[in-house]
Design goal:
Strand content of chain A: 15-25%
Helix content of chain B: over 70%
Mean pLDDT of chain B: 88
Distance between the termini of chain A: 63 Å
Strand order of the largest sheet of chain A: 2-1-3-4-5
Strand content of chain B: under 5%
Number of strands of chain A: 15
Oligomer: heterodimer
Largest interface: A-B, 18 and 23 residues
Number of strands of chain B: 0
Shape of chain B: elongated
Low-confidence stretches of chain B: none
Radius of gyration of chain B: 15 Å
Mean pLDDT of chain A: 85
Structural class of chain A: alpha/beta
Helix content of chain A: 40-55%
Number of helices of chain B: 4
Shape of chain A: globular
């Protein structure tokens, strides 16, 4: 059986190297990677990916319906790229290649290959692609349509949904603030002329809140007055679309705007080394999640993690190795947690997490699993393979009621974990009981 | 997926057409009141809102031919034109709507 026929027929022997463990809140369904290989080196790659929280399978199983983050194919296992071509319609495909020719790149690009990664594999580069795919797959762009004409707003929403976006409509502009808090849109489409409130005033009111300063607003109106259009742009309206506009033009414009807005926001909000949320935006997200949790009653677990003896890693092996450890730890968290969870680089070697719909106890269990996997991961250094561990402190809304209070409680628990000998997770509630 | 979308879009178009029918009644009434010089400011506001909405959204549901006559009535009201001219524009728009919903 050739690789390609095996894929087409479904592989009866395909089984995950490590099965999905019992799911609980805060714990991700393992992100699945298909690995096609004829190189023993990749056995090592498979083990490393497992250590980072991925489920690695040797190909699609029966029915070919399992969700898979990416198919990774070594070019020697598929020299004619036939297998690659057969997987591309349903999968993101990464080809590991030793062939540096540009011809090969063009051939791969024509087929629709998502990425080429040089072999031997730089795990951080490979995982960077996984993170990008995960973000694209899991978090569909969100658009809020504010228009008092509910029939038209619904039509816009359906057209956007057909383009793979999540769209909500709002006919009362006075509820925009609350809706933005709850729905967290990537972009707002705002009608200008509404009886309850003028779209310009609604936009001005939104801009009074710091987190909404950069939220893109696309005004939509039959307004012909150049002055009003100019005012709309001054408020930070990213564009002014004049009605009448047909649905195809509108959805294309929104699609481009929303994609650019997300890219820009990623650059602004994220730490450049790890691609995780930065300190400031983590605290803003925490404030929003605390508010949401209070309103909905669903629990959250707030966690601070810190790599153990990190200064010694830097001093002994150099900052380059230190940076790779930080990147790998960030990738491990991204690979092991759900896409809805909030992961941030809080400081140098400190990380902050918000696990949604999870109690602190559930959060601590999930983190303990990640702690065990990560401690088994070996980094290549000049002194041979080395492992690094981390400690963590976890709390919830029962421990503190404010953002600062929660961070303080998690930090106290983290301090206790360090005091007790590191490489462990401590719940703040356990401190209280003593 | 596409069928589901088409189905939902047909529903929305039906809702828009139903609303057009009630707007047609309102515009015809407005035209008659204008001729009798009996249209009050509240009615002007209401018509203004309706023609503004028609000018902006009728194309979305395949009634693009209503855009221009609706824009014309909107402009006449905005420039406080002679009531007869507004009445004439409104009558024209009403006729266009009637033709569009009963082709």
């Amino acid at each position: 059986m050739t690789l390609i026929s095996l894929v087409k027929s479904g592989n009866p022997e395909a089984k995950s190297v490590k099965g999905t463990s019992e799911f609980e809140p805060g714990q991700a369904e393992r992100k699945r990677i298909y690995l096609f290989d004829r190189d023993p080196h990749l056995t090592d790659l498979s083990q490393k990916l497992r250590s980072l929280g991925y489920e690695v399978a040797s190909g699609p199983g029966d029915g070919n319906s399992e969700k898979c983050l990416a198919a990774v194919i070594h070019e020697k296992a598929d020299p004619e790229l036939e297998l690659t071509a057969s997987l591309i319609p349903d999968h993101k495909v990464i080809v590991l290649c030793e062939n540096r020719s540009f011809d090969f790149r063009i051939k791969a690009a024509r087929l629709g290959v998502s990425a080429l990664v040089q072999h031997p594999v730089d795990l951080i580069e490979l995982e960077g692609w996984f993170s990008d795919f995960d973000r694209d797959q899991q978090v569909e762009p969100k658009v809020l349509i504010v228009d008092d004409d509910d029939i038209v707003a619904e039509a816009y929403a359906f057209a956007l949904q057909q383009k793979g976006m999540r769209a909500e409509t709002l006919s009362n502009p006075l509820k925009t603030g609350q809706m933005v808090e709850d729905f967290c849109p990537d972009l707002i489409v705002m009608d200008l002329d509404m009886p309850e409130a003028n779209g310009l005033d609604v936009a001005r009111a939104l801009r009074l809140s710091r987190p909404h300063l950069s939220l893109p607003i696309l005004f939509l109106s039959a307004e012909q007055d150049e002055d009003i259009q100019h005012q709309a742009r001054q408020i930070g309206g990213d564009d002014f679309i004049t009605k009448p506009v047909d649905l195809a033009t509108l959805t294309n414009k929104i699609s481009i705007r929303v994609s650019r807005a997300r890219d820009l926001r990623n650059i602004m909000e994220r730490d450049s080394l790890t691609g995780l949320l930065n300190h400031v935006n983590f605290k803003e997200r925490l404030a929003a999640e605390v508010g949401r949790s209070r309103r909905t009653g669903s629990p959250i677990a707030v966690c601070l993690l810190d790599l153990d003896h990190f200064k010694a890693v830097n001093d002994t092996f150099g900052h380059q190795v230190g940076d790779r450890v930080i990147q790998m730890f960030a990738n491990c968290l991204t690979g092991s947690l759900r896409s809805v969870d909030v992961i941030a680089r809080y400081g140098g070697e400190e990380f902050g997490l918000i696990l949604l719909d999870a109690t602190p106890e559930q959060g601590a269990r999930v983190l303990d699993g990640i702690r065990r996997s990560f401690s088994n991961f070996l980094f290549d250094t000049d002194d041979g393979p080395q492992s690094v561990t981390f400690s963590g402190g976890v709390c919830g809304l029962e421990d503190a009621s404010t953002t600062e209070g929660l961070l303080g409680a998690a930090d106290k628990a983290l301090y206790e974990a360090k005091q007790k000998g590191r490489n462990r997770i401590v719940l703040h509630s356990q401190l209280e009981q003593r | 997926m596409v069928e589901a979308f088409d189905g939902r879009f047909a529903e929305l178009t039906a809702a828009f057409t139903k609303r057009l029918t009630s707007e047609l009644d309102m515009l015809e009434k407005f035209g008659r009141e204008l001729e009798r010089h009996a249209a009050d400011p509240a009615m002007f506001d209401q018509v203004c809102h309706v023609v503004h909405r028609l000018a902006g959204s009728s194309r979305v549901f395949g009634f693009g031919e209503l855009t221009r006559p609706a824009q014309e009535v909107e402009a006449l009201i905005a420039e406080q034109a002679d009531p007869e001219r507004i009445a004439e524009g409104t009558r024209q728009l009403a006729e266009d709507i009637r033709r569009s919903i009963n082709p």
